[in-house]
Amino acid sequence: MRVFIAGIDGYLGWTLAQALTARGHEVGGADGYFRRKWVDEMGSWSAIPIVSMKERLEAFRERYGKRLPFWEGDLRSYPFVEQALREFRPDAVVHLGECPSAPYSAIDVEHAVFVQTNNLTTTFHLLFAMKAIAPEAHLVKLGTMGEYGTPNLDIPEGFFEVEYRGRKDRLPFPRQAGSWYHWSKVHGSNNVMFASKLWDLAATDIMQGIVFGTHPAEMGDDPRLATRLDFDQAFGTIVNRFCCQAVIGHPLTLYGSGTQQRGFLPLQDSMQCLALAVENPPKRGEYRVLNQFQQVYRLDDWAGKVAKAADAFGLKTEIRHLDNPRKEQEEHHYRPDHDELTRLGYRPSGDMDAELRTMLARLLPHAERIRGKSEALLPDIRWTGDRSRVSYRLPT
Ligand SMILES: NC(=O)c1ccc[n+]([C@@H]2O[C@H](COP(=O)([O-])OP(=O)(O)OC[C@H]3O[C@@H](n4cnc5c(N)ncnc54)[C@H](O)[C@@H]3O)[C@@H](O)[C@H]2O)c1
């Protein structure tokens, strides 16, 4: 299949380009290097060093024996998006090209507006360009489990049967997002659902859990092919951040009680699931929702797991609770379904503790690099919009 990846320079995108190529697909993609700039704005950098796209593409050609067609530009420009799709002629489009950070969207009005307009505009442009250029192609759009929030009900995959005053219908399950970023994903989901109905588009909306991990072993050890891994307060997702904290002897910082529950999956499982979604498209006009995660965990379970894995490397870690900068439920029911991907063939890669040990081993050589930006680990972005440093000092 010819698969176009919007957001191919990102954490998932650069890994997916290689995972799909290894499965025999022809991959191309676009990016405007925004993630690199956002992390720089947060005073940080990727813990795993990454090279320029020019060097990435050279390394790709050496390893896979073919060129990866790449378009550098802003997906907020419609002519740019249409031209890329016209030149590439995709069978499937994977849309990863959004700003993925809840804290970044909480900084101030400028960042909230940026995240929502960026995410809605890139989605609109891909939808309209697909209608114009590739109406039979399949859109795989990355949403997030965070769209559902934490309702006091079990969470189905996208839709549920409801009965009201004696009448029944199958309706989208209510979304109760917990940040401006997560609401941008809800709005994007609604637009994809409507476009699918309007233009007979085949669409898969992936409600993905929190991804963690460095690049899968199958990708080899050429450092030019490694994907990024962030640890700053806005772009470092929790397990990646804990592992970076562990390798520099920094306390593992839990927000609030740590009893919050979320769905998680390792990077290689995210790749497996996305490949399965691409290779098993729904029929035209169908809007399909897949809940994509391996298992639900409590956040404090991860702190314990990372501390234990770090201990095997002789790293002593302390677990610290900070005032929660977010507005979220800490004690809550959480039981989302996730059967559809299993039906498509998803088999979890397994041992999470082994995955953590691999991550720590890969991060240890970069401890000085992480230490150099350790200020970026601490959360001073608050959901209320008041930006103030938490009362907590870094160890010297
Ligand atoms: N990483 C996770 O844990 C996770 C979990 C759930 C959902 N997701 C979703 O998966 C997708 C990818 O996540 P990621 O972690 O790889 O993020 P990422 O920021 O690393 O990747 C997104 C890429 O899109 C590019 N991009 C964004 N806006 C653009 C624009 N206007 N023009 C051109 N390029 C643009 C960025 O430069 C970046 O390279 C996102 O939609 C995110 O919401 C990620």
From TrEMBL:
Belongs to the NAD(P)-dependent epimerase/dehydratase family. Residues 3-289 form the NAD-dependent epimerase/dehydratase domain. InterPro entries: Epimerase_deHydtase (IPR001509), NAD(P)-bd_dom_sf (IPR036291). Residues 324-348 are annotated as: Disordered. Gene3D superfamilies: NAD(P)-binding Rossmann-like Domain, UDP-galactose 4-epimerase, domain 1. This is NAD-dependent epimerase/dehydratase family protein. Residues 324-342 have a biased composition (Basic and acidic residues). It comes from the Bacteria.
